[in-house]
Amino acid sequence: MHSSPLTALCPATAEAYLPSPFSEAYAHSVQPRPPQPYLRPKGSSGRSVLRLSLSFTLPGDLRSACIARTATAAALEAHGLAAYVWPVTYAVTELVSVTARMSPGRELYVSLRHRDDAIRLLVWDQHPHHAEPALADLCGSRRRRALWLLAAVVENWGGEWGVCEEEQPRHGSKSWAVLPR
What span, in angstroms and rounded, lies between the C-alpha atoms of 19 and 122? Predict the structure, then answer.
């Protein structure tokens, strides 16, 4: 069983930490390959327009932040959005790292879109709703505090960010950032 010196940010999930989905044997047997983005031309005219629309699911592990950062950087560069690489890769790294600590061992969903001259980043985790208000407030406070550097970067770029709970009957939380050009 894999143990980590880092604990879950949520006090309710700290004692229910699951083992890492990455095994040491697997990590040594597979050489990482840079991700190849899927480019889908859009538009009704004869000229193709490449739009960024990337979604993927990752294991709830801190090492998933590196995967998200690499895939995001490759997609941005492939779509001619190199000016966004630094702030967006920083944002996805922070969001995936924090959401992985909120729901260790559970899958995370990452969505990256370029619309209306802005990059929209969404990370959804499977963190359960808390019935007890004090626990919900503590959990939300820890999540927001853990994202203080993200807040500074997004504010510096003139963007917005936030965290909200998923509406019932679904469970989980959505963390998002919008970075304008």
Answer: 25
* Residue 129 DSSP one-character state: P
Q: Which secondary-structure segment (H or E) carries 13? A: helix 11-14
Q: Which tens digit of pLDDT belongs to each residue from 22-61? A: 444 434 444 444 544 444 444 444 344 458 999 999 998 9
Which two tokens mark 32? 């990482």
Adjacent-strand bridge partners of 12? none
The pair of structure tokens assigned to 126 is 């499977």
Output the pTM of the full model: 0.73
pLDDT tens across 141-167, in order? Answer: 888 889 999 999 999 999 999 988 766
Q: Is 7 helix (H, G, I), strand (E, B) or coil?
A: coil
The DSSP result for 17-82, as a single string, is PPPPSS-HHHHHH-------PPP-EE-SSSS-EE--EEEEEE-SSTTHHHHHHHHHHHHHHHTT-G
**Tokens coding 12:** 């309710």
Q: Which residues pair with 120 in a beta bridge?
A: 113, 178
24 within 8 A of 61, measured Cβ to Cβ: no
